[in-house]
From TrEMBL:
Name of this chain's protein: SIR2 family protein
Pfam families noted in UniProt: SIR2_2
Length: 391
């Protein structure tokens, strides 16, 4: 029996029709890989607007000095495949258990101070404005605004930055993020659960908090223009328990409710599926609601996207699109070009496929461009059903 393949043209034609349909209920999950796609350096020297976890680890380490730097380096050497999440988890654990004893050169108070230094630098690194030139966040909003919609688009993001807010405000797009008010906006969970805003309003749900969130004297989370200490779920072993408390529990409940609604589509970009507390929630909802679907656009190959492909193997309504192939209907196969559905398709094909037959939409920048161009442009011809998967 011949090896299975996925016809990339058929699936991209279908996807283009879906995102050009204003009657579809669509959500977008934006992960940490999205701002990495924006180059603020030179063509010769790539510098991401906000780095990935490896770049973030490097920048945090460079910000430390003296005993804190020594302790960080010592922990980093001890851990296998260390990154900022593993190092911060170890530091927080030590701060809770060692008391006056010194490990890696610091006692419990020293590790607590180191944890605070790391969190402060993480906030500094992600506090970046959008480039003044055209960028994928603006193009994403352009697609959202490009058609009359029956349902408001919902943006879920694990990122702390204010890039989505800035793009929405630059384009004068009304949005709701769970807070009401202006001077010291208060969190309103009942508005999230009702979700009864007009369709032209974008819903923005920040699953891990934001650099613009802080706590008031009563310990409640509020949103203000600038704050010294932010309410955020920092990368460490306590992420799951933190998301079970307010205000994060209401935001995760919204993600769950969205996926349990009939005929919904969640598009993920820049998200590795390594966050088990999010991946498990998605998997649970997909199993409970076969009419919902997730399209995951991944930057790397099938072999490198094991978190996403492993989840897709168990959930047929989760489709994972990688550089060299996909997992669709739980079948993993490499890409293959199909017959052109119309005379304009060869030009459209260059938006999602390069001359090496590598799928391009795992890059947030190119996915946003694809959506912006597709907005309002429905292509009628369809490929034959048999051209989806060849055996």
């Amino acid at each position: 029996m011949a090896e299975s393949v996925h016809n990339i043209d058929r699936y991209m034609l279908d996807f283009r029709q879906i995102v050009s349909n204003g009657r579809k209920k669509i959500g977008i999950l934006i992960g940490a890989g999205a701002p990495v796609s924006i180059n603020v350096g030179t063509p010769e020297q790539y510098e991401p607007l906000i780095p990935n976890i490896e770049g973030l680890t490097k920048k945090v380490k460079e910000s430390l000095q003296g005993e804190e730097l020594g302790s960080f380096s010592s922990i980093e050497k001890q851990l296998k495949n260390s990154n900022i999440e593993r190092v911060l988890s170890e530091i927080r654990t030590l701060s809770e258990v060692i008391g006056e004893n010194k490990i890696h050169g610091l006692d419990a108070n020293g590790h607590k101070a180191l944890s605070e230094s790391i969190c402060k630098e993480i906030k500094n690194v992600v506090d970046k404005p959008l480039p003044s030139s055209n960028n994928p966040y603006i193009e994403l909003v352009s697609w959202i605004n490009g058609m009359n919609r029956s349902y408001g688009v919902e943006i879920f993001t694990t990122n702390y930055d204010l890039l989505c807010e800035e793009a929405l405000e630059k384009t004068k797009t009304p949005y709701f993020d769970g807070f009401s008010g202006s001077k010291m906006a208060f969190f309103d969970p009942s508005s999230i659960s009702k979700n009864d805003l007009p369709p032209r309003w974008v819903r923005l749900w920040k699953l891990h908090g934001s650099i613009g969130w802080t706590s008031n004297d009563e310990g409640e989370t509020i949103r203000i223009p600038v704050c010294e200490k932010s309410v955020m779920v920092y990368p460490s072993h306590i992420k799951y328990s933190q998301t079970q408390a307010a205000p994060f529990s209401s935001l995760f409940e919204r993600l769950k409710n969205f996926l349990l609604e009939p005929d919904t589509l969640l598009i993920t970009t820049g998200f590795s599926f390594a966050d088990a507390h999010i991946s498990s929630k998605i998997s649970e909802c997909l199993a409970a609601n076969p009419t919902s679907a997730v399209f995951a656009f991944q930057y790397k190959t099938l072999e490198d996207e094991t978190f996403a492909t492993g989840l897709a193997a168990k959930n047929p309504n989760l489709s994972v699109y990688c550089k060299n192939g996909a997992v669709i209907n739980s079948i993993q196969a490499k890409w293959k070009r199909g017959s052109l559905p119309n005379k304009d398709w060869e030009q459209i094909q260059t938006e999602f496929l390069n001359n090496k037959d590598e799928f391009l939409l795992g890059d947030f920048k190119l996915l946003a461009r694809f959506l912006a161009i597709a907005g309002g442009d429905i292509i009628k011809p369809k490929l034959p059903e048999s051209e989806g998967i060849d055996e």
